[in-house]
Amino acid sequence: MRIIFKTNYMQDIRPWKDGYQFSLYLILLAAVAAAPWWLDDFYLGELTNVLIWAIAGLGLMILTGHTGQASLGHAAFLAVGCYANVILIETGVPFLIAFPLAGLLTGIVGATVAIPALRLHGIYLAIFTLALSVLMDDIIVLAEPITGGVSGKYLGGVEIFGHLVDRWATPGPFFWLVLAVAVIVTLGYINLLRAPLGRSFIAVRDSEVSAQAMGVDIARTKAISFALSCAVTGLAGALMGMFAGAFNNETFSVVISIQLLMMIVIGGLGSIHGAFLGAIVIGFLPQFLSISKEYAAALFGGSTVAIPGLEFGIFGMILIAFILFEPMGLYGRWLKIRTWFELFPFYRKDMFKRQKSYLKTERLR
Question: Which residues cross the membrane (predicted)?
Answer without folding.
Answer: 20-38, 44-63, 70-89, 95-115, 122-143, 174-192, 223-246, 252-285, 297-325
